[in-house]
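Section 3.1 - Work completed
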Amino acid sequence: MPHCPLCSSADVSLFHEDANKRIQRPYYQCLQCQLVFVPESFFLSQSAEKAEYDLHRNHDNDSGYRQFLKRFSDPYEERLRQSFKHDSAEPLSLLEFGCGPGPVLAHMLEASGHHVTLYDAFYYPNLSVLADTDYHGISATEVIEHLHAPKDVFELWLGCLKPRGILGVMTKLVKDRAAFAQWHYKNDPTHVCFFSEATFAYLADQYGLHYEQVDRDVAIFCKF
């Protein structure tokens, strides 16, 4: 049995096995943190993974995509304002992690007056920006489900945040086995980690964070 990539527990069980034409792989669930995950042996190569991302077509002039992101940006910016309302009027320093080739969210946040730094392992692979420990906020929209080492990345994010910093995550959530079996989200071969509210609550407890599920696929964490 594989170990959980989020909490390292060996207490895992088979959750689902898929066998459609495009993708054939098993999914395990950790009985400690409830993460559903794909074993490492089923990860795509870097070149194959990037080829999938190159198919994405997200542009600033796509009003539907901007409206989709607004469901994230509105509560994210609201929590940032609440957390840093007593600070100076200087622009907040934000990190958009996993921005992809078209950083539409960054442009939206910059239009609100924030300073946004980009990081993406394939399109903006500047590791030096991850050495900064002074970000007011970090956004990860449709990112966390792609992570091969989610524990390492989650801890990296927390290390980059100021006290009272806000981490915003957007990802679709696991409900139950029956829904998972019919779920289109698992059919993307680059999706290897699937979170639930129980998983996010575990992370909040483990790292001493305040956690809110502000929309069906938007979670906000605050670092004390």
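Second construct:
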Amino acid sequence: MSRFAQVKDLVLSLESDFEKFYDKGNQAAGTRVRGGLQQLKTLAQEIRTEVQNQKNASK
């Protein structure tokens, strides 16, 4: 379940940058948002692989 916590923490850490970019037009915050979303994508792929491996191992 710690992987879920990692995803949650990452999303929550991006909240202020989302606000800065969308509400205030801060371009640097947009760069940080894109970087964070890339990290989220990588983390999600790692979790998908783990889940698939565990599922296959239980067969």
